[in-house]
Amino acid sequence: MDTVEMRSKPSQDALDMAHLIRERRTIRKFELRPVSNHLVTELLRVSIQSIALDQQYDSYRFLFISSQKAKEKVASAIMKAYLDQRMKWLPNKLNQALVERTARIPAFLIAIQKGMGKAEDRERDYAAICAMLQSFSLLGWQDGLGMVWNTESYIHEKAFSDAIKLQEDERVICIMYIGYFKKIPRAKQRTPAIEKLTLLQE
Fold this sequence. Notes:
four-stranded antiparallel β-sheet, disordered N terminus
């Protein structure tokens, strides 16, 4: 009978990955230098290889937004969606200031899920796309890119959907704000994984 040799120590690749996962932070303050289309395309190409999706149809697409004009358009749509939801009282001057602040972020990546098939297929693909984005954020960190996921309710508002020309059979998963980080924030206290784990033994 064949035997399998068990490693007593994790490989260097595993150690490097564990370090990367622990080191990565959510970044909200970015340097102003641009993020290249080529780099984002390459990071997505590698990230897609980390997941399993039904290749018979395309269940996702991405919008990459880095030009100032396009960022201002999307930022304006975000603020309009906010205003339509719950911020109608916001003065125009403050609204414009928030648009300008959002548009100063170097790049946006909008992840879109396509298709309105069976619920189980949609849930599977949603999970796979989220896993892909996690890989994307880890790979980006290695190149000095920081990111923050945004899944606030405005992504489901008509003002935002119209601005990005969302199709009827599509939904936005998230918008990721991307840029080179100025400094790495301190790590926050996390709930130990063991406190979230239930062992079912019977």
